[in-house]
Amino acid sequence: MVASQGAFSEKYIAYLKRRKMGGVEVPEFGEPITNLTVPIGRDATFKCIVVNLGNYRVGWVKADTKAIQAIHEHVITHNHRVSVSHADHSTWYLHIKNVQEEDRGQYMCQINTDPMKSQMGYLEVVIPPDFIPEETSGDTMVPEGGTARVSCRARGIPPPRVMWKREDGQEIVVRDATGAKTKVLTYQGEVLKLTKISRSEMGTYLCIAGNGVPPTVSKRMHISVHFHPVIQVPNQLVGAPLGTDVTLECYVESSPKSINYWVKDPGELIIPSEHHEMTVRQKSMFEAEMSMTIKNIRREDLGSYICVAKNSLGDVESKIRLYEIPGNDRHIYQYTDERTTSDDEYGTEVYDDDFEDKEKKSNRVPDRANKWYSNDGKLIVTANNAIGVLSDAYIITLVNVLKFLA
Question: Which residues, if any, are the signal sequence (predicted)?
């Protein structure tokens, strides 16, 4: 098909060359002028092919303004960006450098025959998208449950299309007039409206404008959702042996970001130190994990601790109780004679649960009475027998100790 078209063109040109008017060859256009689409700032070149030009001349005119651009080899316009060139008196070029918006329009290639012969080509100047600052939103703050409305208006030729997406790749939650939710990865339109907004919708949104003319442009908008602090405590009761380290944890959600600190009940502010190591790890824009590690627990460390979070919308606190559990320093408990006891099925004395020594009350969870425990918690010695135990960690040898003491 292409070969046949080329052959036809060559035959047509040969035919034109044979045509004469009054013994003089008649100029003709060899092919139509191609329309051009050029981004602003680039160069444009029109090509006009003339057969049998002879002594005639070629001119260029901007048709809409009737402004003569050039005649033959001479530039007429005062526009310094316009120039002309030709090849073998058959191919004529009009060059426009650094195309501007005012260059858009019809351009005419003329041959000064009588009557004049002419053909036209159109120059379309396209402009990449750009945002209109006064009609484009910035960062926005909205209370949780409220409505966030952000707009993004762009200009360009052809008119740009605007779409929205979240920077973190999460879905956008769009609600219609009935409150029904739709989740989409991209939203089309200049205005994005988020109703009944939740804290999970907080984040950076990208407004992207494109019209097929590079480059596509985007603008970042951060939507902050403000709400009262909330604390979640994974473990409200924490037990640890004396002399060990223990970590207390509280999970905080707040926006704006809260001030977080620890208090020892009933109200003693705890200052970070070698004994109290405190960290706050930010998990997301509104989630934080606050922790406090108490080193080498002492008896005075036992009790209740309060984690507190405060922001401009309010404050919240939650309590964690730290109590003692038996550790590696297990020993035989000695009890006063007032306690009533009974033997369990293993021959071990069991103390009355109702008994409580008011003067020695503590946060310790008591061991079973009159027992020795190894590091792994395995029972080694009871009051009714004495056993020698050898392990990799320790040697315990007891022979009739209880009888001797009795």
Answer: none
